[in-house]
Amino acid sequence: MIKSYLLIDKFLNRTISFKERKILEKWVLENEDNMVYFKTRIKEFSQCTLQDFDSDMAYQRFLKTLQSKEKNQRSFYTVFKYAAVFAVLLTIGFMTKNMLGGDNAIPPKELIGNEITKGSDIVVKLADGSTKVLKSEGNEKITDAKGNIIANKGGNLLSFDKNNGLDNSKTIFNEIYIPYGQTFKLKLSDGTMVWLNAGSKLRFPQKFIDSDKSRIVYLEGEAFFEVTKNKDKPFVVNTNEVNVEVLGTKFNISSYETDSFIATTLVEGSVSVYETGTPENALLLKPSFQASYDKFGNNFNKTKVDTDIYTAWMQNRLVVDNLKFSDMLARLERKYHVEFVNKAKHLNNKIYKGEFDNEDIETILRTIALSTPFKYEINKNIITITE
Q: Residue 190 has what DSSP assignment?
């Protein structure tokens, strides 16, 4: 289980998923000590007096949330405790909405909902709240709610030009989601190129503002960055637990929510990798080195690697290098937009190596089954594995 303080950090930074929120709620309600610790972290985080928290509205939103949960019987005491927790959670929501602007800003991290991300289209959520659905091919201009052109799409590339848009006074964030089964390229306003892997989300400024001291983006998933050099404005990739800071370089980051590690692989230049909030403990990487951060052990492991293995996805290649069966299935789910039901649990800890170059999913499964026999059945996008 993910450590509670990591979930609290995700909650405070508004990157917590629905599943993680449920885990956090359960942990908070386990005992009084957990509740006290949770409230203490909130107080430390806020360091301000709330001006606009409406407790009545918070309670109504809590009731609405209860109605959407699975219907089961709860005692009055249990419901009361949940109400208390939700009041605290909603308070943070109100508290953070005014903490925008400047380098210490906390951008609104209301990630695109599951009803959209389950689809097969690329989705862009603009800072004004409007949502654009993109096809992987074709050309089009992306406009905001007022009709201003803010980006241009050409084929598999979406470009944000620094001259597009009208507002240069503050940093505003857009978000892009890449569904399973697809990859996509993004050109940021400073010229930085980002290749996004399947099942990834990136929050990024529509423009990098001159008054900001750094260029920061927020990643969940996997991406390869080719950063435009600017010695006066470091480029920072935030993955919630880990920050990667560079001036201008090429590197890959894998930080999927379901993975227990965050891997930063340097191809060219140099990067500084550190736990969010502790830049003084930064780990410096040279080309061909990887920093793997263990989310559970809270430590880095630095090793020399073959960078081609970790960037193969950009050429539509799947490289399996000492992966457990369960981890390999997770990668296949993202790459081929399928869902596995694995009933052959004895395979989960088997280790595999191999490489597939643009092969279809059935060819891959047949190849893997040659070394460790198993049966599988494909029903649309559901693949059931049996002994």
A: T
Domain boundary, last residue among 286, 308, 330 = 308
What DSSP designation does 381 have? T
d(CA 191, CA 189): 5
Domain co-membership, 154 together with 24: no
Indicate which CATH number applies to the domain containing 258: 2.60.120.1440
Residue 326: give the domain boundaries: 317-386
Token pair of 193, please? 């190129």
86: how many CB neighbours lie within 10 A of its CB?
18
| Number of domains comprising the chain | 3
CA distances from 203 to 7, 25, 239, 335 (A): 19, 26, 11, 21
Domain boundary among 65, 96, 127: 96
Report d(CA 57, CA 122) in Å as an integer.
34
Rounded CA gap, 145 and 161, in Å? 18
For 341, the token pair is: 């039901």
Pull the structure tokens for residue 172.
Answer: 């505003």
31-52 pLDDT tens trace: 878 877 877 777 666 544 333 3
Local confidence band at 165 (pLDDT 50, 70, 90 cut-offs): low
Q: What is the pTM of this model?
A: 0.70
Question: Do the domain assignments include residue 101?
Answer: no
Query: Are residues 181 and 269 both part of a single domain?
Result: yes
Residue 238's Cβ-count burial label (10 Å; 0-12, 13-18, 19+) is buried
